[in-house]
Amino acid sequence: MVFPLGALYNALFVLAGGSVGMLLGSRLPERVRAIVFQGLGLCVLGIGIKMALVTANPVVMIFSVLIGSVIGELLHVEDGFVRFGDWCKKRFRSANPRFTEGMVSASVLFCIGAMAIIGSFDEGLRGDRTVILSKSVLDAFAAMALASVYGVGVLFSAVSVLIYQGALTVCAGFLQPWLGPAVMNELVAVGGTLIVGIALNLLNLTKIPLSNMLPSLLAVVVLAAFFC
Fold first, then answer.
1. What is the pTM of this model?
2. What is the pLDDT of residue 1?
3. Are 167 and 111 in contact (CB under 8 A)?
4. How far apart are CA 162 and CA 149, in angstroms?
């Protein structure tokens, strides 16, 4: 078993980038922070759309999101995240009203995508941390931008990164047969769809309970394995 050192590095990079973003954000006038917020939302929207368009089977993507969202709603996944976020907020005495939103949005953004899975697999199967270290650098800059808007909640997404990518690295040998190229395509597409949801929330166009949609990532693996 390979120790998930890459996941640890990634989490530390998120903490470092988020800390810098918090320092910068506190020094920006409100109108500048607002335009940063909108610019970040547009960039995330573009990334999400690009990822969603890789699907080769839109029906699988649609049903994965629908089935996963219903499961998440029935299981009250969002409520669990809110309770955990509120506990962290109270524990660390944060007065930031967007603490939980920042933690959830950043966690979804950092944990969804091909680099998180492929990088973790490369580390777990071959001991190669090239992809995961490259992702760590990108996540540091994304954390910087998010933390300048959302604040300290973004730093707590490092825990999600560590647990998620660490688990993928440790379980790489078992999971690899389930995640062939066709399944990976649909997984990335569903992830991109959820990232579009992050962008819509950032732009204040709506309020989507993205945590309740996270089971879609499990649903798409099952559906794509059978129908792709």
1. 0.79
2. 67
3. no
4. 23
